[in-house]
Amino acid sequence: MKWGKYTPYxxxxxxxxxxGIFIYWPAVNSFSLSFFKTAPFGQKKxxxxxxNYIDLFxxxxxxxxxxxxxxxxxSTVVSVIILGYLxxxxxxxxxxxxxxxRTIIFVPYAISFAIGGxxxxxxxxxxxxxxxxxxxxITGKNINWLNQTPYALISIIVASIWKMLPFSIIFYLAxxxxxxxxxxxxxxxxxxxxxxxxxxxxxPILSPITFYLVIMNITHSMxxxxxIIDIMTKGGPLGSTTTLIYKLYQxxxxxxxxxxxxxxxxxxFIIMSFITFLYFRFGEKKVHYQ
Amino acid sequence: MxxxxxxxLNYFLIEICLIAVSLAMFLxxxxxxxxxxxxxxxxxxxxxxxxxxxxxxxNYLDALKLVPLGKMLWNSLIVATFITLGKLITGxxxxxxxxxxxxxxxxxxxxxxxxxxxxxxxxxxxxxLFMIMSKFGWVNTYWAxxxxxxxxxxNTFLFRQHFMSIPQTLEDAAKIDGATPMQYFxxxxxxxxxxxxxxxxxxxxxxxxxMYLWPLIVTMDxxxxxxxxxxxxxxxxxxxxxxxxxxxxxxxxxxxxLIIFFLLQDLFxxxxxxxxxxx
Lengths: 290, 279
Fold this sequence. Notes:
- The structure holds two protein chains of two kinds.
- Chain A is an all-alpha fold.
- Chain A is 75% helix and 2% strand.
- Chain A has helices at 7-33, 51-57, 60-91, 98-110, 113-124, 130-139, 149-178, 181-189, 194-205, 207-232, 244-254, 258-286; strands spanning 36-38, 45-47.
- The relative contact order of chain A is 0.13.
- Chain B is an all-alpha fold.
- Chain B has 16 helices and no strands.
- Chain B has helices at residues 2-35, 40-43, 58-66, 69-100, 106-115, 121-124, 126-136, 142-146, 153-164, 168-176, 181-189, 194-209, 213-218, 227-236, 243-263, 265-276.
- The radius of gyration of chain B is 24 Å and the shape is globular.
- At the A-B interface, helix 1, helix 3, helix 4, helix 5 and helix 7 of A face helix 1, helix 4, helix 5, helix 6 and helix 7 of B.
């Protein structure tokens, strides 16, 4: 039986109009802009081929931003995966008050990265903040968290882990609760202890979730990090917390380096496409739900 | 006997761990709430205080005066509401096309949409997107804050997955009864998708409420900015270091999504998980 021939196309118009104008068109624009040099004043554009890419890759600050991004993304994602898995195990017990713990632990998920950043700026404040007070009580040291070089990045990483952790916990908990009782029971009969069950049985079963979480957390920390960095350190001190997305923002809207920023967009786009490709190449295949 | 006492010890240890984790996750909120009621001298008291001496709402009033936070909260409400509505409309329509029809180019269109799944356009393409907005004359307007985000692959896939779980016999019956596609859509698909629509609304609303980078660059006039940007302005405002006021403002911006989360937690979590794990 056939319904209207043109109906599906009409139904798709709104979605494709939006993604066409606001995703595909800017993507094409970025790409073409990255081959031109634009004069700071006026509309003059000169075709320069790959010169923008060469400039970018020979630029020390860009490599520095890449290094910061790598450290930041790797440390947040690894922490969030491991801690998320462990905390989900705790929440998977039928224990007194578990619903309340669950609610409390999930709360940072509901707020934005910017608000999360604001809360941490306060706690890390050298004068009014509580963290320095306890630190100085214990060690006698007073650290200026957000203005000193290794500490600023450490602060951003800790705050991001705190903000991103609930996301992983939510997914792991849902995964754990969907593992069938019989698998667990038979592993108990086989004499597996809790630790073995956790890593040799449950973890492999949940590998598709882990894969999904790694991808999602990479995108979160690559892009959403903008909010938390802008609030906490503004990329400083000395560029030590300037990630690729923060650098893109600075070049585009602070220094007005239009073609440089477009080139950086294209590189981020390529990184994201690669991650998406990995997801569909390896993620979808591995899925084995019960 | 031995096993049960060991089990009890285990449960006790788990309980302790959970209390510790909950405290660590919630402590920033507790401190912010108590700080938001403290006057400037109390905020800087040494050793730092954990509880305010009285419930004084002055900081909340001051935060509203320091930056136009009231207007910004209103802007966020408008923006988040319309983004949510837009995503629901475009998402359900497109999902209906992909779930119930066979048509030429279906696979290509589907892949075209699929590619954008992990692509946060508002960050990656921020500069060209901004240039498009200038071209449209949309900078500093609600249009720029809303329209680019009214369609998404995630919503389309979420609804498609749900529509495909609705028995085919219903569709066949509707066709035999001579229903038009839109009659089937409005009378059968949509009413059967209540919880899915509710869940998607929550997730989309929270997402839109929490947007940061795009509102930051596409609005110049303070009265067009959203509440998230208000938090940034509070922190960098002149009279700062008045942490009581900053925390009061921050909490006001956080409260709407926190309320949604506390009231609708189960639905929220369930839809989040189902939007992530497509089968």
